[in-house]
Design goal:
two-stranded antiparallel sheet, elongated
């Protein structure tokens, strides 16, 4: 029996070309948008970038990121550039729709170009500060006498 999507039980199915997802919100709808991440090691080529473009379109992603151990080729860069840009309405800025990052670049602090992730999670409700009151103990005279007898 196959596993259900999002379930950790059952057989592992095809990842549909997705190795990771980064969510962000960049408009007033509050609906999160997705950055689709693919990771490949050996023998990468421009066809892998075309596959990522198709995956981003099929999965309705806003941005695709291709992470590779291998150096980038000119054809890969050209293919990524031909995908155009994602325009963030909330930030009024364009981000490359397909981005290629090598492990070497990531180790030198390269980052995915995307809208900030701030505000993607609901904030906890703020606790109202009020005057603290200490509750007193009401001892009767008889109780005080019993306590003194114990001491």
């Amino acid at each position: 029996m196959g596993g259900l999507e999002g379930s950790k039980t059952g057989k592992k199915g095809s990842d549909k070309g997705i190795d990771g997802v980064i969510n962000f919100v960049d408009d007033a709808t509050g609906k999160s948008k997705r950055v689709i991440v693919q990771v490949k090691s050996g023998h990468v080529k421009s066809g892998d970038i075309r596959d990522l473009v198709g995956t981003v379109q099929r999965e309705q992603g806003a941005i695709g990121v291709f992470i590779t151990l291998e150096p980038l080729t000119k054809d890969m860069k050209t293919e990524a550039a031909s995908a155009g840009f994602y325009h963030s309405i909330g930030w009024g800025k364009n981000y490359p729709r397909i981005q290629i990052l090598s492990i070497a670049e990531l180790l030198q602090d390269a980052e995915v170009k995307m809208p900030p992730q701030h505000g993607t999670f609901k904030s906890a409700q703020r606790v109202q500060k009020g005057e603290a009151q200490q509750i007193g103990l009401d001892f009767s005279e008889e109780s005080l006498e019993q306590i003194q007898d114990l001491i």
